[in-house]
């Protein structure tokens, strides 16, 4: 720019604009059009799949491919009488497709998913029955005996919550399957303050369940997941071991104890009445039944 030009003239501003090379500024119509085309192509590109999805696709592709005839394992199976496409068994009427592989990606215990689904179905049925019957709190607390039973149920529920919290923590479970499965002191302090709409619905369902229904669901969870009976106070080893438990409620335990007491009382009465033969006969019948 020459010394004769005025710094207030338009020529001074035009020269400054031509020399502006800051990135991100679109000065011409062609630049704006190219930028819009670039953004459109970017939006049309398929999103990147998660790593787990890519691994599942690669695994399924590998499982769908048959074993190559040059494979040593295929040659060994052929010598044993295997024919591609034929079923298992002597007559080839057995399974054709191999048993599918279900990859476990979480850290939950085996069978826990099935128990949780059954638990949710039982909970849904309870809520549905409650809506149909429309039982009120006044009907539930109609008599003093019902109040006493409700108090005992609450005590059993709190005991079950403490046991559930301890056993879940031993398994490394960080959150309860249902919020009320654990006692209040074990829950997050800001859990009720940061609730969204879905959590409010869970709270409404929780309020609709009575302590007796909660205790039944929690007892079922402890028996099926941890093999623990709250009434016996015993942790069993597996499904076969827990079958020795009298039952899933306190009523079964009381019935079992009364039968044992009645059997012992009858045996003692026989001895006191001078009837040792009857006592011996009852004892032999019990031994035969046990064998």
UniProtKB/TrEMBL annotation:
GO terms for molecular function: nucleic acid binding. Residues 31-49, 56-66 have a biased composition (Basic and acidic residues). Pfam families: DUF4187, G-patch. Coiled coil: none annotated. Residues 18-66 are annotated as: Disordered. Belongs to the GPATCH11 family. This is G patch domain-containing protein 11. The lineage of its organism: Eukaryota, Metazoa, Ecdysozoa, Arthropoda, Hexapoda.
């Amino acid at each position: 720019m020459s010394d004769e030009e005025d710094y207030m003239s338009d020529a001074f501003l035009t020269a400054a604009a031509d020399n502006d090379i800051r990135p991100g500024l679109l000065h011409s119509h062609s630049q704006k059009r190219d930028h819009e085309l670039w953004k459109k192509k970017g939006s049309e590109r398929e999103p990147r799949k998660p790593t787990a999805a890519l691994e599942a696709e690669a695994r399924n592709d590998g499982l769908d491919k048959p074993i190559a005839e040059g494979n040593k394992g295929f040659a060994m199976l052929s010598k044993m009488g295997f024919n591609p496409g034929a079923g298992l068994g002597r007559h080839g009427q057995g399974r054709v497709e191999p048993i599918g592989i279900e990859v476990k990606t979480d850290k939950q215990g085996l069978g826990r998913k099935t128990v949780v689904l059954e638990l949710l179905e039982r909970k849904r049925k309870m809520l549905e029955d409650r809506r149909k019957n429309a039982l009120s709190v006044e009907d539930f607390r109609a008599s003093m005996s019902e109040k006493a039973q409700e108090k005992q149920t609450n005590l059993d529920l709190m005991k079950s919550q403490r046991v559930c919290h301890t056993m879940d923590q031993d398994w490394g479970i960080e959150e309860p399957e249902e919020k009320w499965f654990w006692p209040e002191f074990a829950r997050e302090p800001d859990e009720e303050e940061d609730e969204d709409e879905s959590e409010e619905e869970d709270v409404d369902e929780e309020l609709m369940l009575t302590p007796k229904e909660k205790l039944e669901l929690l007892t079922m969870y402890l028996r099926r997941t941890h093999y623990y009976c709250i009434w016996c106070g015993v942790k069993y080893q597996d499904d076969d071991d827990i079958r020795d438990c009298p039952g899933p409620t306190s009523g079964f335990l009381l019935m079992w104890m009364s039968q044992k007491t009645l059997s012992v009382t009858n045996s003692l009465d026989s001895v006191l009445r001078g009837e040792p033969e009857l006592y011996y006969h009852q004892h032999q019948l019990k031994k035969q039944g046990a064998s």
